[in-house]
Amino acid sequence: MPAIKLSDGKKISFSKKINGFEITNKISKSLAKEACIMSVDGELKDLNFSISRDAQVKIIDRKSTRLNSSH
């Protein structure tokens, strides 16, 4: 049962593996429409990527100005 920690500190638990599309839909329908990609434990992943363990996830949408804060 993966626990997803979002960039704002909020945690969401799921009963089965989850992908980025399902996470964005759980957060907000508007985010689901705007989301382009996600960062899973610091690595960029497509929204189809399945997460089956606890992870830190950042959703990157069309309004995001920078993909990586280290640049």
Q: What is the annotated CATH architecture?
A: Roll
The shape, in one word, is globular
Mean pLDDT: 90
The level 1 CATH classification is: Alpha Beta
Whole-number radius of gyration?
11 Å
> CATH homologous superfamily name?
Beta-grasp domain
Topology:
Blueprint lengths: L2 E4 L4 E3 L4 E2 H8 L1 H6 E6 L2 E3 L4 E2 L3 E7 L10
In short:
Helix content is 20%, strand content 38%. It has 71 residues and is an alpha+beta fold. The relative contact order is 0.26.
Task: Describe the 3D structure.
By secondary structure, this protein is an alpha+beta fold. Helices cover 20% and strands 38% of the residues. It has two helices and seven strands. The chain has helices at residues 20-27, 29-34, and strands at residues 3-6, 11-13, 18-19, 35-40, 43-45, 50-51, 55-61. Strand 4 (35-40) and strand 5 (43-45) form a beta hairpin. The longest helix has 8 residues, at 20-27. The radius of gyration is 11 Å and the shape is globular. The mean pLDDT is 90.
Features of the shown structure:
about 70 residues; alpha+beta; Ubiquitin-like (UB roll); 5-stranded mixed sheet; two-stranded antiparallel sheet; 2 helices; 7 strands
